Every structure is written in structure tokens, then in C-alpha cells.
Automatic annotation (TrEMBL):
UniProt keywords, alphabetically: 4Fe-4S, Cytoplasm, Iron, Iron-sulfur, Metal-binding, S-adenosyl-L-methionine, Transferase, tRNA processing
Protein's organism: Sabulicella glaciei
Family membership: Belongs to the methylthiotransferase family. MiaB subfamily.
Gene assigned in the entry: miaB
Name by which UniProt lists this protein: tRNA-2-methylthio-N(6)-dimethylallyladenosine synthase
Pfam families, per database record: Radical_SAM (PF04055), TRAM (PF01938), UPF0004 (PF00919)
Amino acid sequence: MSNKKRLFIRSWGCQMNVYDSGRMADLLAPLGYAPAEAPDGADMVILNTCHIREKATEKLFSELGRLRKLKEEKPGMMLAVAGCVAQAEGAEITARAPFVDIVMGPQSYHKLPEMVARISRSGGVAIETEFPVEEKFDHLPAEAAPQGVSGFLTIQEGCDKFCSFCVVPYTRGAEYSRPAAAILAEARRMAAQGTREITLLGQNVNAWHGEGAEGLAGLLRLLAGIPGVERLRYTTSHPRDMDEALIAAHRDIPQVMPFLHLPVQSGSDRVLAAMNRGHTAEEYERLVDRLRAARPDLALSTDIIAGHPGEREEDHQATLRLIERIGFAQAFSFKYSSRPGTPAAAAAAHVDEATKDRRLAEVQELLRTQQADFNAGKAGTICDVLVTGPGRHAGQIAGRTPWLQPVHAFGSSTLVGRIVPVRIVAGHPNSLSGEIVEQEKDAA
Ligand code: 5AD
Ligand code: SF4
């Protein structure tokens, strides 16, 4: 088929970028672009970038260096840089890599078909780094490729919190909530395409305040009413926006899973204040108490930053103690990385690299132990597992527990898309292995 064109998208960073990459593919499908597995020979390559931590820009330029060679071999190839590095470093990209055809920020990818058409017609470069989020969501296509048993749905974008260390308010812009009607329509379509678990995405997802529902709790209630939507999750939440209604949603809505990603960043009040997080360690712990009272089997995940400017040894110790007291099932931890233009970057007392490395290692060691303990604790229990696909080995299936743990078990691939009881045989550091409870094995 000569009019079929091949599209390769490389995505870095958060789940929202994964979602955005999917929507870019949906937007380009009507123009004849079909997904390719590798950039070699592709007619269009999109690099969907992340700016949250260091080295993003350098990684991008080294990737662009490789792609330049592919482009020399295939001059018609179109090359686009999307995402937060494009937003923040648009001018540098066009200066250092003039062979790039399109530079577009996260709020502009709906214009992709128009940019591609313009460049195919008359050449040149397209640069789009404006901020009108509403417009983007209005222009997303109704047609979308299925996401599989578990899928993402962006409901909120941007952030007004301005944590000292974070570039998101600058790259993704102000908070914007999509209206409930648009979200419900997308969720219905996903359910009709076989998606059983929907993870709602937003940089500040629990600050959602769109039209048509009373906060995120109200929205979850509406989503839970859609036939086929069996599991709901949301990420990433800010502790300050965890209101009573949302806590109650974990108790009252069976589809809302007992797992919550709730970044705390630090266990020291001094550092939390310097970070502009708007809560103390004690307030975070009381919030966790209320969540666990509402939903006793709730498991928590978090983000920790080691070595924020001004962090002293006693602050680091306070972080370790908070982690010990809470007990996380999963976590992401990062060495503080100075982002130009953020308040923390301009702070006086930066922590030296060796100290940051050591503190991060200590944080990670503790979190690793907690995750391993949490997984080991599931051995011998029966978990409801959503079967998401075939497993790594023949005759195996892969799935997820309510607590997001990957599970492997022997079973038929006819079970994909179903929730089956699995007896957990062993808990490993990053996954579980189990056996499907007998009467289900032969079903379907
Ligand atoms: N340095 C290190 N970690 C960061 N994060 C955000 N900005 C930085 C930074 N400058 C982490 C936070 C956030 C997660 C998505 O990335 O922990 O919750
Ligand atoms: Fe960044 Fe803080 Fe906003 Fe999260 S809440 S996106 S860490 S500024």
C-alpha cells in the first residue's frame, strides 16, 4: 500500500506523555500514518519529551543527532519534537537542530495534522508553544485506537501549586479541568473498546473541578456508572486537594481501587515549607490515617526528593522516619535536580552531589524493603487480578492486583479482560506469582 506512511513516536517521562503520544497517533491516523516499531525507515518521527529532571535536553540532542543521519538517508522524513522540553527550549532546538521540522509544546499537538500538511505543501518549520489547553481538548479526534484492558484518560492538566523545585507550572501551564461530559464520552468509548481499568491522569488530578460533577469524587461516581468500567484509579494527587468526599469515595465506590499515589516529597517540615508544599509531615500522616480509616486495605505510593536545597542531615532523617511510619507499597524517589527558572534553583544552600547520592541510596533502600515486604505479605492470599494480557512464557497470563502489583500465573489468554481470583504463591520484589483459583481456570 503506497499511501500508508509509518509513524514512530518515542515517549519519555510521565503517563500523561504516554497518553499524549497515543492521541498524536490518533490525530495522524486519518492522514495515513500507521505505527512503526522503530525510527528506521519511518516517514515521521516524534520525540515526546520530558523536562522534569536534568539531562532531558542533552538526551534529546543526542537522539536528534542519530535521527539526523536517518533523515539524510530519507530526506522526506518529518521530524517533530513535542512535550515539555519543546515547550521550554523551543528556540534552542531550532537553533541547534535546524533539521527538526516541528516543535510543539504539550498544549499544541492538536494542530499536528495542520502542521504536517503545511510542511508537506510548502516546507519550512512549524513552531507551536502556546498555552490554550481548552482548545486542544476540543480538537481531539473522536476516533481513537484501543488502549487495551487498562488505559489512561487525561482529565486535568497543568498546575498552579508552584512547588519550589518543579517545572510543571511553567511547561504545562495553569490548571485546567476537562468538563465531565467529554470525560464520560471518552470513558464510554474506552469501555466499548474493551478497556476495563481506567487511570485518570492529571498533574494535580484531585484538584479536578470541571463542569458537570462535584469534584473528583463526583466524577468518579459518574464514571463508576459506565457499564464495563470495572476499575478506576487516578494519579497524581496533591495532599492538599484530598478532600473528605474523595476520601469517602475510596470507601463507597467499589470500582475505586484501594491504591493511592500521594507524593509527600519530604518528611521534614522545614523542607516541606521550603518546597512550598503547603502541609506538614504531621498533616500528611493524619491524612493517611483518615484514608486508611475509610479504606483499611488502602496501599500508598509516594514520591520522595533527596537533597532539596537547604536539606540538612536531620531533615533527611525525618524523611526516613516518615517513610518508616507510613509504610509504602511502592514509591518513586529522585535526587534533587536543579531546574532553571524554578525558585529552588536560585536557592543558596544546594546539597553536594555525594551527599544527595548517599541520601537517595538510603531512601531507596528503605522503600525497596517496604515494597518487598508488601509484596511478600500477599503470599497465601487470594487477590482479584485483572488479566491484562498474555504472560512472558507460553501458557501464562499477566495481570494486576487492586494494589497495582504485576501478577503472573498459568492460564488461558481467553481470560484477558476479566477479573479472576488468583492465589498468590510468592511475592517477589517487583511482582507476584500465583495460581488461578480452579473453577475460573477453565471458564470462557
Ligand atoms: N528534582 C527532582 N525530582 C523532581 N520531581 C519534580 N521536579 C523535580 C526536581 N527538580 C519529582 C517529584 C514529583 C515527581 C513527578 O518528580 O517528586 O512528584
Ligand atoms: Fe510540580 Fe508541585 Fe505541581 Fe506536582 S504539585 S506538578 S510537584 S508544582
